[in-house]
Design goal:
Elements: H1 12-21, H2 33-42, H3 48-58, H4 71-74, H5 79-82, E1 98-107, E2 114-123, H6 128-138, H7 140-143, E3 145-150, E4 153-159, E5 162-163, E6 170-176, E7 179-180, E8 195-202
Helix pairs in contact: 1-3
């Protein structure tokens, strides 16, 4: 569904592995392999965990193949021969033009409802995490937040003193144009004029 997306961009690696490993158990037209892989090829993966899950599928394997790998046959091959390295992009040393990002936080679930809005200026190519950091610097009373590092990158646990809870099934959801972001705050890069919403939500 959604032009080849299976869940979100983070779940694609394991989903493709599972579908490739079980190919003989379903009809070929039950899922569009080429469309799903095109979504993966178009994405710039940054987190090591996401890369580790998508790489096996890109070479036509799954984690199930690990037990049968012949390591002796490949020990003399350099990693560069097995998979090409991506090109280095960007120009270093040149200041990036600033962009403006609209950022709002909303809670209608617990305690006293609140909605705060701020316009933040950051260098182009900045991540959402950088937007949040600048917002917290400019208005710490309203936009302070806490996060924890995970194998998938930084995870926002609390904004404006309100923390998500597994017990209450609550968390901070990030949206753009009403759609949930497919990436985390550490890798998502807002565009100039984009409105990012952080909404306290349930699952």
């Amino acid at each position: 569904e959604r032009n080849g997306m299976i869940g979100n961009i983070y779940s694609m690696g394991l989903a493709l592995q599972a579908l490739e490993a079980t190919r003989k158990f379903y009809a070929p037209r039950e899922w569009d392999c080429a469309q799903a892989f095109s979504r993966v090829y178009a994405h710039d993966y940054q987190q090591p965990m996401a890369i580790a899950q998508v790489l096996p599928a890109l070479v036509g394997r799954s984690y199930l193949d690990v037990a049968g790998l012949d390591c002796a046959a490949t020990k003399n091959m350099s990693p560069g021969r097995q998979l090409p390295l991506p090109p280095v992009l960007g120009t270093h040393g040149i200041p990036r033009a600033p962009i403006q990002v609209h950022y709002s936080i909303t809670n209608t679930l617990q305690g006293i409802p609140f909605h705060y809005f701020i316009l933040v200026e950051v260098p182009s190519d900045s991540t959402l995490l950088r937007v949040m950091e600048v917002a917290a610097q400019e208005d710490p009373q309203n936009f302070s937040f806490q996060m924890e590092q995970t194998s998938w990158g930084p995870y926002v646990t609390s904004i404006h003193g309100l923390a998500g809870s597994m017990e209450d099934r609550t968390y901070w959801q990030f949206l753009s144009a009403g759609n949930a972001l497919d990436e985390g705050v550490g890798t998502y890069k807002p565009q100039d004029g984009e409105h990012i919403e952080a909404i306290f939500s349930t699952y």
